[in-house]
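INPUT
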Amino acid sequence: MTKTGLAKTGMIDFRDVNKWFGTLNVLKNITLSVEPREVVVVCGPSGSGKSTLIRCVNGLEAIKDGDLVVDGQRLGDPATNMTQLRTEIGFVFQSFNLYPHKTALENVTLAPIHVRKIPRAEAEKAGRELLAKVGLADKVNAYPAQLSGGQQQRVAIARCLGMRPKIMLFDEPTSALDPEMISEVLDVMVAVAEEGMTMMVVTHEMGFARKVAQRVVFMDAGAIVESGTPDEFFSHPKTDRSRAFLSKILRH
Amino acid sequence: MLENFSFRTIVEYLPLFGQGLITTVWLSALSFVGALIVGIVLCAMNLQRGWLFRVPAKAYIDAVRATPLLAQLYFLYFGLPRLGFVLPELVVGILALSLNSGAYIAEIIRAGILSIPRGQVEASVASGMTYVQRMRLVVLPQAFKVTIPPLLGQAIVLVKDSALLSLISVSELTRAGQLLASDRFMPAEGFLTIAAFYLLLYYGLKGLAGVSSRWLGTAGART
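OUTPUT
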């Protein structure tokens, strides 16, 4: 890749990325560019590689070959400081992964204080504001075990925002939630998107995709099968596989 | 049968038992601290990816767990002087207990660390923490809670194992029982009394385990 090629890249740039688990080709020739402030929803059947795709962006999974450039830094390059790059990328997990021995506020302030080296008082002030923003001003001192799933996921989003990231990745953020808690989490994600965050979101929430996504990427068997605006994708899917998939998730 | 049982002699020997009890308590406490140090070092070695530290640690843990403590004790007691290290028997005893218990404690700590869900490590990695930061801030504080009850269990085992030091003439609790048995030919009195004292120590440590688990249970329960 030439220097000029690099200069034109987006915030997240996959070029012919491949990844294997053993002999299983979990990512096949992925080429995808996410522009700054763009929201991309990734969907597809389970096992299609969509979680793996976003886990590569912050290096939770390593790619085998191809190029993955995030915020101008090439992953796997010895010159790239992964720890540093990760501070710019928030990651929201399906299972929340809050620190159970820390309160909601401590969950939000832990990395800002120890990784970003922000003074404690300042970090706590920002943490309280973020928790208020996700509607949990009254749960500042609660431990994760005392919170519902939806509340935990909102704390997890606040925890990412506390680092003031440039990119947010969401790995099926509402899949582990009871139905009545899904919208409270989606509302927070919509708010984050509307503030101009660059986001990649693995989800099957059509409403969310239609509301904030500029693009929907459909994956199957490790490859990107189709990509388009939410309206194109949901109303006029182009491939048999995406039609089959949509008929299954839209039936109810 | 009981008419032959001399409570008076037990009372007469009570200062000796008291001395032995005190020795057992402090030498066990010292050995436990030593074992913790040995255990932490072994565990850290064992968790390394490279074989250079991991293999020796594993070999040591296996060797200790596969051989009797008495054999280890005799090896140190009779073997070390041959190699030029002449140490007081009390020191040899504490060394033996530390080295022995350390191998078990290494495995207890390792199990505690490995019991922390993968997601905890991933969350801290994703937030840009270094290895040291995520161990210090996320993994170890949680592993600590899981580890306390089995560690106290190991402490109970260590106290009982310390009885073997009577065989290298350390004047601890069991040694006091032996003295009563051999001086006055009263093995029943001697050994029953020390059994009662060991029971006392056992309940003390068990109570501590109960208190600590209740305390740990309230401080931020796990999901």
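end of record. Chain B has one domain: 7-216.
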